[in-house]
Amino acid sequence: MTRPLPVRGEPALPSWIREKKIRLTDLHEIKALMRKARLSTVCEEARCPNRTECFEKRTATFLIMGDVCTRACGFCHITSGRPLALDAQEPENVATAAREMGLRHVVVTSVDRDDLPDGGARHWARVIRALREDDPSRSVEVLTPDFQGLESAIDEVAAAGPDVFNHNVETVPRLYPSVRPKSRFDRSVGLLARVKERHPALATKSGLMLGLGETDGEVEEVLGALRAAKVDIVTIGQYLRPSSWNLPVVEYATPERFERLRAAGEAMGFSFVFSGPFVRSSYRAEEALAATVRSS
């Protein structure tokens, strides 16, 4: 995991967070397949600390609708700016790449496309349908933007038939002005509630990061809001600053804190709470879906 030097006031890296070894053979093989199909992975763009582990297992989270985002969240490493036009061949390319990788569970995410009238919802639906048509037995998980709260866009993506609808709240409401300045906590929770209300059989999921200055009380309030929206799966991970221009780490959550919040989430009734320093929203996603199916 490549990491910049700490900024002034950022705490030293603790012993329970260590660099993960990179196996270049697996890394280059997956990257070559993606470039051949003109695809990107959020694993690379966001510098996920688990990317080598996932690539070794021949899994990856597809990043659709380009690699330039119309927003500029303080925690995110993806380039912000004016995106290019959508690639009409991308849905078929994603399905082909998933087949060549032998994936049984596919995770798809995207940049925010506030430049498009529907936020890219129609394109999202085409990708989901292409994956379904290519292999109906394959499970599909989507990690979507908020579509600026446009209900028709949310409904179009959910109606395309993913198995898991994920949308991350990322942090506590108090920190949104610096962490997610163009987003709203209530809009994100409302999206998840709408999906579950209209598609009760669909597993819903969300995630947040620790280490940005939030308190445990605030995190538990977020968990309570997500559970009230009938969210099934929650992921809690450590924020790691991906570049010098991203927000600094305020603190590194201890393993005991992650365990305490996991227990709190489970007590609220979530079917699966994945909590730990290197947990990310798509990490071991198939396992989380399986746990949700067993508990239903």
Shape: globular
Radius of gyration: 18 Å
Residue runs with pLDDT of under 50 for 5 or more positions: 1-5, 22-28
Average pLDDT figure: 86
Q: Please write the CATH class name.
A: Alpha Beta
Approximate helicity band: 25-40%
* Total number of domains: 1
Strand order of the largest sheet: 1-2-5-6-7-8-9-10
CATH architectural type: Alpha-Beta Barrel
Taking the sheet with the most strands, its summary is:
8 strands, mixed
- Distance, first to last CA: 37 Å
Strand/helix succession: HEHHEEEHEHEHEHHEHEHEH
Provide the CATH topology. Answer: TIM Barrel
Structural class: alpha/beta
Count of helical regions: 11
State the total count of DSSP E strands.
Answer: 10
Task: Give a structural overview.
The chain is of the alpha/beta class and 296 residues long. The protein has a single domain, classed as Alpha-Beta Barrel (TIM Barrel), CATH 3.20.20.70. The chain has helices at 24-36, 42-45, 51-56, 90-101, 121-134, 151-159, 176-179, 185-198, 216-228, 255-268, 285-295, and strands at 40-41, 61-64, 68-69, 79-80, 105-110, 139-143, 164-166, 203-210, 233-238, 272-275. The strands form two sheets. The protein has an eight-stranded mixed β-sheet, sandwiched between helices. Strand 6 (139-143), helix 6 and strand 7 form a beta-alpha-beta unit. Helix 6 (151-159) packs across helix 8. The radius of gyration is 18 Å and the shape is globular. Residues 1-5 and 22-28 have low confidence and may be disordered.
